[in-house]
């Protein structure tokens, strides 16, 4: 974790930003919860539990800055709220996909690049350079689709 925090500090300094104590705290919360897809409000509540004087606006600005630097990805799972996860800026270059249960809201990560063949075809046929993609599949998870 220490190396990742140092890498983020270096990345910010390259563009004349600083890794302030509050930004580092937001980053630590994201790293500690890297298996979750936290909303800004959830990040704020976790940060506030460690530093009660932190404002919601500080968390929002930090998340936007981290998103701009590709340290995190912002994803909308259909509920109108952005959720955040670590991005390519922290060495997470493999794109993964999400299965979203429309009943309970459970999110399951699929760690296979299901679109690689399609991307190659699109690039060749349309002379198009793909820089990113997201695949979200909506349905019912195992628990919600089980007979009751």
UniProtKB/TrEMBL annotation:
Gene behind this protein: fur_2
Upper taxonomic lineage: Bacteria, Bacillati, Bacillota, Clostridia, Eubacteriales
One Pfam family per UniProt: FUR
An example Gene Ontology molecular-function term: zinc ion binding
Residues binding Zn(2+): 101, 104, 141, 144
Keywords attached to this entry: DNA-binding, Iron, Metal-binding, Repressor, Transcription, Transcription regulation, Zinc
CC cofactor note: Binds 1 Mn(2+) or Fe(2+) ion per subunit.
Name of the featured protein: Ferric uptake regulation protein
InterPro entries: FUR (IPR002481), Fur_C (IPR043135), WH-like_DNA-bd_sf (IPR036388), WH_DNA-bd_sf (IPR036390)
């Amino acid at each position: 974790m220490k190396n990742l925090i140092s890498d983020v500090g270096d990345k910010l300094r390259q563009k004349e930003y600083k890794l302030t104590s509050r930004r580092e705290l937001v980053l630590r919360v994201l790293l500690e919860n890297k298996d979750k897809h936290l909303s800004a409000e959830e990040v704020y509540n976790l940060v506030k539990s460690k530093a009660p004087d932190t404002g919601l606006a500080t968390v929002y600005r930090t998340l936007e800055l981290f998103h701009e630097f590709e340290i995190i990805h912002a994803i909308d799972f259909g509920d109108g709220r952005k959720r955040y996860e670590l991005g390519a800026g922290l060495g997470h270059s493999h794109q993964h996909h999400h299965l979203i249960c429309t009943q309970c809201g459970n999110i399951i990560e699929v760690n296979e690049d299901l679109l690689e063949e399609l991307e190659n075809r699109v690039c060749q046929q349309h002379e198009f350079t793909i820089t990113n993609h997201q695949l979200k599949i909506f349905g019912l998870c195992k628990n919600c689709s089980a007979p009751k």
